[in-house]
């Protein structure tokens, strides 16, 4: 395989953190522990990707460790790659480059060997050095503005590095602020009621709308007593999904404007997303939505919104539930630290793996959210989270917060550590959407 034919992964390194972008476009935040070198963590991730795909890949790194190009095999063997087109057919191996490889002892190579090695490769292969551009891309991760006591110290000329938690938060915010070419849909699902689906829907919608910008819709896709409307603000109109269904032709007309949707959704003033309500006062028999009707609603939603977050019902056989799965790019499964909730989540994942190829990918790529109760159950939460580690892509735990227990769901009402937890959940969700 020629160098140009190799799949390419990217990593932006900042301090002890990095954003790894897989060849198929997934963004993944990764971090090094205090006794690790972030370069080795990056190479470990690249090696795992090469092993998964069964072929070597090109790793392009940038950030505060310099810019480098390496070919990484599934066994972790590294080869420096020339940076000029004239040398594209020539590759020189450098065993010293194993400083980027996790299996090599830390004393084997000096920590700054990679920049020196890359400089040597550039000199050897560059016949016509090109002028560096005066236009430098702005990397938001490097644009750190200190806050709190760090800001006070910085004002007198002493720069204090940001903490690992602050840097991790900024990496997550960068992931959540990402926009895609085309709409994306997130299905929040668990066949058991009372496990936190509505809460998870509202928190994810708030995170993506507040950090990534507007045009985010939280859709109560529920035949039976959907409560998303009860726990969010009501807009100027008392409208539900049934009202929107009768207006789909008008909203899809060429003359329709972006503001026309406002009559049918309920804007959240502080959290900046819109809610499409079901009617919790009607029986399920009066508000069932068939597949064709769901598809029409979906056409409207994807015309007016860049991101849709579904708060699903509990009837996994309903047409609207199945069509939601068919149209979603990411599955999020909330559960409480209880055997019944966890078993329901596990059964859902098993059913999706057996349903079809798309559903199986959703299950494999799912994000599990374990929400802790008011008191105790920490060990149970850890045990349940560990039980899903090999069933889904990410398992996150969200601490109890009284603001989420009942009443209106407002992100600003959360405690700081709860906000950080939901930010990490949203970051994990964003990383799974192509």
TrEMBL record:
**Disordered: where is this region?**
77-111
InterPro entries from the UniProt entry: AAA_dom (IPR025669), P-loop_NTPase (IPR027417), ParA/MinD_ATPase (IPR050625)
Any idea where the AAA domain is? 184-313
Coiled-coil stretches: none
SUPFAM superfamilies xref list: P-loop containing nucleoside triphosphate hydrolases
Provide an example Pfam family for this protein: AAA_31
For bias kind Low complexity, which ranges apply? 77-90
Q: What is this protein called?
A: AAA domain-containing protein
Provenance organism: Microbacterium murale
